[in-house]
C-alpha cells in the first residue's frame, strides 16, 4: 500500500555526515526552503554510528574532515568514532535538523515527472515494510557509495572447518570477548591498522595477516600548529588556518606522489624504519610494490601500530592464505596461524547512490550510462545532485562544496523563476576512468560507476583547490547547465 506524504522543496537521502552537513547548509544559505531527510537506519550518523569495532576512528585529520562551517575544537587531530558521531549530532542540533529526519525510511525509487516538474520518491519503512511517497522539487542524494548492509567478505577454502569465530568489522558483535584470545586480523588497510593497536594489549597473540603491504604514516595525535594558534587566536580563526594548512599539505603530498613517487616512497618507508628500527624487515612488511596514492595511504596516530609491534603485542605476517582449518589458517608458505578469532578487515562493498532506482516518467534509468557533471550531477537528469567525497583527501571537503553548490543552484532557480536545472552535454566528449585509484573496493565496483569525461564540466577532478574555484567562486551560467 502506498501512502502519500507532504511535498517539500528539497528531499535529502541519508542522515550521515554528508546528509546532516547538506541540511545544515540549507539552513544556513537557503532558510526559506523546506526539506526532509529520509534515513534507512534508526539513528543518525551513518558510518559513524554503524561501525562499533575497537578503536574505530577517522583516517583523515579532523580539521579537513569536519564541516567548514563548524570548527573542530577538540584537541584530537585523528578522532575516535564516538567524538565524530557527537560532532555530527551537535551540528544537527545547532541547526534544528533533527526534527526533519524520518528514520527507518529506506529510499527504493525516485521518478521524475516531466509534467509536474517534481521527483516522486518512494521509501519503505524498515519495520512495517509500508511504502510512502514524498514529492520534492530537488533531490539531494547523500547516501554515499558504501553498502551498509554487507561488507566485502572473500571466500576462503575451509572456512567452515574453523572452530573459532569469524567476524567482519562492519558487523561487530557487542559481546565479543577477545581478552587473552589468539586473534588474526586479515587485511592491511585503514580498518586493520586501527584494530591492531586497539586490541593488541588484551589478546594473548595478535597477527595482522596481509597479502601485500600498505604505505603507513605516523601522524601526531594533536596538531602542534593548531595548539599554538589557539593560544593567540579565536577557535574559528585557528580552525580555518589549520584547515587550509592541512588542505595544502594533502594536495602537495598527492601531487608529489604523481610527479616524484620514488621520493615520497623513500620518505614514507624511511619513517617506518625509524619507528621499527634497523633489524625489522621493513622491506617485506611495509614496502608496497606500487607507488604511493595508487591506493589510499593509512595514517596511525602517534605511531600506535608501530608501538604495538615494537613492544611485542602484535606481529605482521605477509603471506597468502592457502586454507582455513579447525585451528586457524594454513598459509601458502607452510606456516600455520592458530587462532580463536579471525577478523576479516577485508574492505567494503560499494553501492552507488544508495542503490536507488531512478526513472523519468516511469522509464528506468541506468546511472552508469550517464556522465557526471562537476562530480555531483548526472547528464540529462533534472533537479538531482548526489554527494561523494575525495579519495585522495578528506571526504568532507568535497561534500561541503557540493552542499554549498546545491544552495547556489536553488537560489538561482528562485531568482529566475526556473523550475528545472539539468546538466546537458554539448560538443564532443571522451570517457576516461572516474577514479584514478586502485583500491580493492574501487576495482570491484567500477562497472557500477557513472561515466567520467575528459573535459570540464564533465571531468571529476580529485583536487580541492580546483573544485573550490569552480564550485564556490565560479559562475552558474555554464552553457552545459540548462535552467528552464
Report on the structure:
With 484 residues, this protein is an alpha/beta fold. The protein has two domains: 282 residues, FAD/NAD(P)-binding domain (3-Layer(bba) Sandwich), CATH 3.50.50; 186 residues, no CATH class. The chain contains 13 helices and 25 strands. Strands 1, 2, 3, 4, 5, 6, 17, 18 and 21 form a nine-stranded mixed β-sheet that branches. Strands 7-16-8-9-12 form a five-stranded parallel β-sheet, with helices on one face. Strand 1, helix 1 and strand 2 form a beta-alpha-beta unit. Helix 5 crosses helix 10 and helix 7 packs across helix 8.
Task: Provide tags for this entry.
484 residues; alpha/beta; FAD/NAD(P)-binding domain; 2 domains; nine-stranded mixed beta sheet; 13 helices; 25 strands; 23% strand; globular
Largest sheet: 9 strands, mixed
Number of domains: 2
Total strands: 25
Q: And the CATH topology of the largest domain?
A: FAD/NAD(P)-binding domain
Structural class: alpha/beta
Please report the distance between the alpha carbons of the first and last residues.
35 Å
Proportion of residues in β-strands: 15-25%
Low-confidence stretches: none
Number of helices: 13
Q: Using the alpha-carbon principal axes, give the shape.
A: globular
Helix content: 25-40%
CATH superfamily of the largest domain: FAD/NAD(P)-binding domain
What is the element layout, followed by pairings?
Layout: E1 2-13, H1 17-29, E2 35-38, H2 47-50, H3 62-65, H4 81-94, E3 101-102, E4 105-113, E5 118-125, E6 131-141, E7 165-167, E8 182-186, H5 190-199, E9 205-210, E10 216-219, H6 224-232, H7 235-259, H8 261-276, H9 282-285, E11 298-301, H10 304-310, E12 315-318, E13 321-324, E14 328-331, E15 336-338, E16 341-344, E17 357-360, E18 363-364, E19 372-373, E20 377-378, E21 384-386, H11 395-416, E22 421-423, E23 431-432, H12 440-443, E24 452-453, H13 464-473, E25 481-483
Parallel strand pairs: 1-2, 1-6, 2-3, 4-17, 6-21, 7-16, 8-9, 8-16, 9-12, 10-11
Antiparallel strand pairs: 4-5, 5-6, 13-14, 14-15, 17-18, 19-20, 22-25, 23-24
